[in-house]
Design goal:
Blueprint lengths: L6 E4 L5 E4 L10 H29 L6 H13 L3 E2 H8 L3 H13 L3 E4 L9 E4 L1 H22 L4 H18 L1
Antiparallel strand pairs: 1-2, 3-5, 4-5
Length: 172
């Protein structure tokens, strides 16, 4: 592989250091690659927007987007999830989920319950306050979801969901 002319990498303070970049042949499916990378950048942007929206939407309930995600994952599970199960569902580290669930248990939103399937991995369930918070959250979340999808056909949402789930499965 041939090397290209040196490029410069900026450093904090305005200095630059030369770096040599290897020239690589573009893959056969270059348009597909460009489209996929555009999708990735768009998903990064969407993630940032969803975090900001989540924080704004849940602020009046004393929540953050992180707590919103945890409460939602548990509520949708019906029977509770373990911390590793929540982490898998959200694509987060087990340690990060453990920290937030511990705080939410202290705040009275969640409960740790005995797990008949696993002695060392408790089930995380919503407390009565957690259920009430989830119901109040739904009063804000549901109109937000309807408003943000009213001009998007259901079929497009279904296709998009299938693609995102497929990519998650492939990358997981």
């Amino acid at each position: 592989m041939a090397l290209s002319a040196p490029a410069c990498m900026p450093l904090p303070g305005g200095d630059q250091i030369p770096v040599r970049l290897e020239k690589q042949e573009l893959p056969v499916h270059s348009p597909k690659r460009v489209l996929f990378l555009d999708l990735v950048l768009s998903l990064f942007r969407l993630n940032g927007l969803l975090i900001a929206e989540g924080d704004a939407m849940t602020k009046q309930l004393g929540l953050t987007h992180a707590r919103w995600k945890v409460i939602g994952a548990i509520a949708l599970s019906r029977a509770g999830l373990t911390v590793p199960g929540i982490a898998r569902a959200l694509g987060q580290s087990r340690q990060a989920v453990q920290r937030i669930t511990d705080v939410m248990v202290e705040d009275g939103l969640l409960l740790y319950a005995e797990n008949p399937k696993h002695k060392r991995s408790a089930l995380v369930t919503l407390s009565e306050d957690g259920k009430e918070t989830y119901n109040m959250l739904r009063e804000v979340q549901d109109p937000w979801a309807i408003e943000n999808t009213e001009d998007i056909p259901t079929e497009e949402l279904e296709i998009t969901l299938r693609l995102v789930r497929r990519l998650i499965k492939k990358l997981n």
